[in-house]
Design brief:
By secondary structure, the chain is an all-alpha fold. It is built from 17 helices and four strands.
Amino acid sequence: MNRTGSVYKIAAMILLILVAGRLVRSHGDFSYFIVAGTDFVNPAVTPEPLTVQQGQGYDGQFFYRYALDPFDFSQDKYGVHVDHPSYRHQRITYPLLAWLFSAGGFYGLVPIALLLVNVLSFFGILYYMRKLIDYSGSNAGWQFAPLVLCGLYMSIARDLSEVVELFFFTGAVYQLQRRAFLLFAVYASFTMLARETAVLALFPFTLLTAYYMRKELNYRNIGCLLLPFLLPALWKYIVLHQTGVSTLMEGTGNLGMPFTGIWQGFQQNADVSTTKNIFQLIFWLLYFAWQVIFACKVVAGISFRKGQAASWNQPLATVYLVWSVFALFLSVSVYADDWSFMRVLALWNMTGLIVMMMQKRNPGNYFMAFSVLLVACTIGRLILRV
């Protein structure tokens, strides 16, 4: 059995356990993955019956709303009240794909389509990781590396957009390295429209790669490099105009003073008064420890030596360093929830994997064993917890 076939089979086995486990727990209800909450979803009004929890729910409920009709800008529709329409609607890639996979928002198919898009995107990440390995001549074992990103499984389990974001980002990196400028424009545009924070990765990567490729650039190629930044700006303008909101950005609450969010996040998880809280603190510490160890390994291995791969090695290394600084400024609204920071930092971690792969660095057997154990615990936790 070759390694390419092995990675897909292992991924399929992991996802089968995750999906089957959550479906068994929900008695076969795909809407369980949406994690809708009564604060924003009225189950008496939704076009199809949904599993709705008491409380706020999670962001999947807003992706579900826009998957029903991505071009309807109403704040209240289909039994869903969108808290910040201009902020939620700008992340259109994931619900748009689910809308297409559900035959134009067919009510009964939307919950299934939301899950299917994420599963296919997960395999797409593995596909482009293999392409990048072949392009760089790195060890084929690196194709297994994306399997240790716990944030991706959290996104799949709750109908969130990080898996789609990473698929298009990994594809964009590959397309630009092979000078497929038009395909890069497509992939990068969908990345930006999946999560606007992707600009922290795409902008420095595109700018620095363009510098290395400056002798190859013409007006058409320059236009392709600019499109991923112009198209999301146009979509954001349309959303603002249609919703009648003047605020350009409503996610600034996710930023704060450096290290403050991390410390406050730990403090909010330090309550050990119940068994549930104890386990929650343990998981928070394990995820954070993994994040710190991995970041140290990537940063320690970064080299800016000139060479054949400098045109994409150095831009991606710079992207990782930019995200390293950005991660320190994330507020408690991100670090209070281990589901949140492992997902938000998934693009940073994927970039780190690619950087280590290009630099031909070995993450170490102990770290990989820790990663595999953490993935196994995460899958179990996602099955047991809503």
